[in-house]
Amino acid sequence: MIVIENNNRKSAIIGSTLLASNIEVVGWDSSVVPLYKMMEDKKPDLLFYGANAKMNGVEHIKQRFPQLAMVYLGDYPAEGVGIDLTVGKTSYGKSIELPTRLYDITNLPSGVKRPSMSCKISCFTDSINQDTINSISDIMMNLFERKVRFFGNTKIDTYHYLGVVNEQERVDIIKSTDIYMDLTADYWHKSVMLGTIPIVLSSVKIPGINTFTNKETLQKAIETTLQGSYDLPVAREEVIKNTGFDFCANILSALGAEEAKDSVLHFKEKFI
Q1: Helices (H), strands (E): how many in the chain?
Q2: What is the pLDDT of residues 140-197, one digit of tens each?
Q3: What is this structure's pTM?
Q4: What pLDDT score was predicted for residue 181?
Q5: Which three-class secondary structure state does DSSP give residue 181?
Q6: To 10 degrees, the CA torsion angle through 256, 259, 261, 264?
Q7: Mean pLDDT for the chain?
Q8: What are the φ and ψ backbone dihedral angles of 153, each rounded to 5 degrees?
Q9: How far is CA 48 from CA 26, 100, 239, 245, in A?
Q10: Angle 149-155-158 from CA coordinates, rounded to 5°
């Protein structure tokens, strides 16, 4: 069994990837359940945790559970007691780099192209709030003028906001649109895996697709994309090379768990 402490930004992708690889995984909130009680209840073989975890008595835990491997997620753990691997920078023992690009390709339903959802450009609002909207008001006005269709939990003040959608509807919308507009850079990789070209609000260049940072570069990104100047296979390769499966496989390999690593990479093939 693998236990993942919840209060870490990489916990979700590690958990979803290992579960998709048919590995038993449970979450742990160290602010609610003490370390020793969790260990007595779950008796995991591998524990992931980060700086926010409450790890009181860890030196005794390693003595009580010698089979336990511990992976620290983040840079420079305060102390190296019990840590078998650090995913990040460290002054203690073995480490691997924390990836700067990492994409979760699990939990993605097959999309269906539906005539009722067909449109030129669509955009989801779930990960944006009013402060974000205010900070990119000139971009939003340009999207309103283009009659971009908006869907999601955050209501947008435009006639083209069409309400909340579930995950299946979300992928069907992506399959049915010509261009997916990603204002938070957190869903474009799923659009690529579904075969729809995205345009992304990002200061970081993304292989194969057009990005923008302001109203002027948005105009250029849309025009360039509509003219066919993008490379979806290149963008797909960028995603496939940097999945949660690759991340977890690297961790398992660094721990010497080659059989588990091979199993994770085998399951990756089912998602690509």
Answers
A1: 11, 11
A2: 999 999 999 999 999 999 999 999 999 999 999 999 999 999 999 989 999 999 999 9
A3: 0.89
A4: 97
A5: strand
A6: -160
A7: 93
A8: -75, -25
A9: 11, 19, 24, 16
A10: 50
Helix (H) or strand (E) holding 139: helix 137-145
What is the DSSP annotation of 104-124? --SS-PPP---GGG-EEEEEE
The CA-based diameter of the chain, rounded to the nearest angstrom, is 65
What structural domains and CATH numbers belong to the chain? 2-105+243-271 (3.40.50.2300), 115-239 (3.40.50.2000)
- Residue 81, pLDDT score: 78
- Residues in Cβ contact with 132 at an 8 Å cutoff, skipping those fewer than 6 apart: 183, 184
CB 200 within 8 A of CB 208: no
Inter-helix orientation angle 258-271/244-254, to 10°: 170
Q: Which residues of 65-75 are buried (b: 16+ CB within 10 A; e: fewer)?
A: beebbbbbbbe
What's the DSSP call for residue 183? S
Residue carrying structure tokens 């005794």: 60
Residue ranges, the chain, pLDDT below 70:
none
